[in-house]
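lol ok so funny story. i was supposed to be doing the assay writeup but got distracted and ended up predicting the structure for this chain instead. priorities right. anyway since i did it might as well share w the group, maybe its usefull for someone
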Amino acid sequence: MSEATTAIETAWLLPRLGQDLPAAEAEMRQGLLARLRLEQLLGLVETSDIARPPLYMIGVYRDWIMANQGSVQAAAAWFNLGVEWAPHDAGKAASAYQQALTLKPDFHPAAVNLGLSLERQGQAEAALACWAEALQPDAARTALLNHRGRVLEEMGRFEEATELLFKSLLTDPAQPDVVQHWSHLRQKTCTWPIVPPEGLPGLPYRDLVTQSGPLGALALLADPEAQREVGHHWLTRKIPAAPHRLSPPEGYAHARIRIGYMSSDFCRHAMSFLIVELLERHDRAQFEVYGYCSSIDDGSPIRARVLAALDHYVPVRALDDAALAERIRADEIDILIDLNGMTKGARLQTLRWKPAPVQATYLGYIGSVPLPELDWLICDDFTIPADRADEYTPRPLPLPVVYQANDGRMPVLPAVSRAAEGLPEDRFVFCCFCNSYKITPDIFAAWTTILARAPNSVLWLVGDNPTARRNLLAQAEAAGIDPARLIFAQRVEPERYLARMALGDLFLDTSPYNAGTVASDALRMGLPLLTLSQASFASRMAGSLLNAIGMPETIATSHDDYVEIAVSLATDPARHAALRAKLKGDAWQKTLGDSAGFAKRFEEAMKKIRVQPSEG
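and the output, tada:
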């Protein structure tokens, strides 16, 4: 045990840590530090009442390391130095972690943090290599596997990510977050069955489904109550209750209703394309519009338009959830509308503070968001029929006609052609531009049946990722369909994406997670759409749009009906032409694109749910 410093020496030493000193004083400091074990020094720092300037602890560790370079504790000191540098300088943090690993190659926490620092510097490949080469005991293997899987998923290398997360679950099955990512990766890559009926070691089928995550559940499950159970499980793990409520239950007495929209997607995102004209058309004599924005500035025209439509743009990316809740309360928002639900970037912890007397969820997540502090789930009578309202949390708030906001403005579109898109001129083109995770084995089986019965047809899909493409081609071939009849489109700019919709003949919707924005885009471009409406909100989105535009005949209620309608349209040119004629002219503009009418109906609903002091 090293000799302890005296109280006088400690009083001299602590204020001088991290300081540039004259040679004699620096030598004295080094001598004192050489007599202290690392934990002794940290204890002295912790119990002292000296002022600690910014980066003080960096100086503490640096000076101790210089005085104790041969110590067995040096690796721990370098690690701690990296932790201190991490919020300020990822490069210096990485150097410190590397020093710790040089001294102790099996120091796996340093390997984890070194990879994270490299990742923050944009060196994803270096981070992956660091984690792949790290030495670690069995108990620590999952952390390194999970970080590698996470980064590979972000890089779009889904197959590798799935394999690593599977290995992690075999090591430790009690990882709900890993289950969620693993199962959703299988959805993205169309690796079926998504959930093996036999489960995984230590994870029976039911647990895998329950831990599949809210977004994955919309495509995995058709039952709204089962979806709600998955959401409840996720929220219980992730979003604890707040210490207290912020907003007054009796509400405020503002002359104009203060409506706040909270989102991480005020950027080039489907939600912004839907809601922008509603924001623009709010009646400013009756409403004051706030936007709480935690999205990145992507410089897109749609973001600029959204922000210009707000009376009060409030950037909140730098605020934690409690601080955001306090800001909303300070603004005395009457109705707070969450536009994320249980999706990436959500600020659900903010909602738990109840910063507004009325809180609703809209557009971002198409199903139950079972958070006690949410009052309303905005929908319509088709997406959530009155006799199924009890299956949802919070309670449904049905808008008249249709739940989905739309932008009535038509952008300038480029010229497109089937030849340029790699489509045959003489075939009936079925298409679906939904994300690959929405494609289920049942819906794909229906598609291959349709292709078999309509031999002069092709299926045009999004080339979302190589693994999904390979798996879909294999499934088609196994069903007796020539893989050449599947044509894959690349992701393109919004204007070209919209323009090429008109090249298709019939949009085949996914179910139980329908197209939402994409369905509206198809109808806008005169592309007929066939959907399968089941029990859940997510499975009834497209049906709501078809009802609103006056085309209920392409709403199927069973897989058999879905197949029969598709085949009849592909093989009966007159029937197909009659259906397409319904979308010509201003059919979309007068219904789904009637943003002025939608804004009025939306505002009437907001007036009904507003809490006012006189009601309290």
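The chain has a mean pLDDT of 95. Residues 501 and 522 are 6 Å apart (CA to CA).
back to the writeup now i swear
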